[in-house]
């Protein structure tokens, strides 16, 4: 099921397996299957991901399915990179294509043995030091499956979707491109 709200300001709720998810227009929610769960969304600078709540809802929604582990990754803005102070990160994306790429990543991981749920939420807009930029959760039958899937998803999220990261530091602005390489903004 896929749904996008029509009004930015009105929080809405979507029920999936008796679990309710809140979302606004800036968040798109994708859920598939009766036994497998997938949630892919962007969140804006004015939205904070409540990790404890997300995990609680994930556990409640998947109860009784043999889940033995939930592995979570939370990306945050670093304070220092290459010896320079980071003031802010700014994320932009071709949203339609980026959501499709995130959805494809989640779907392909759900096909793997033992993986029962995948949630990926990526920030768009600006973020200051210590603020969350990426949330990934994987629920699986065991810790090995959960941790391996989490690692694969993280590497793919960093490489595949058209999401662009601009790092604003005390020595200038840099686009961060694959494998942590940085290119000064003026050079592009």
Automatic annotation (TrEMBL):
Pfam families: MoaE. Coiled coil: none annotated. CDD domains: MoaE. It comes from the Archaea. GO terms for biological process: Mo-molybdopterin cofactor biosynthetic process. PANTHER family: MOLYBDOPTERIN SYNTHASE RELATED (PTHR23404). This is Molybdenum cofactor biosynthesis protein MoaE. The lineage of its organism: Archaea, Thermoproteota, Thermoprotei, Desulfurococcales, Desulfurococcaceae.
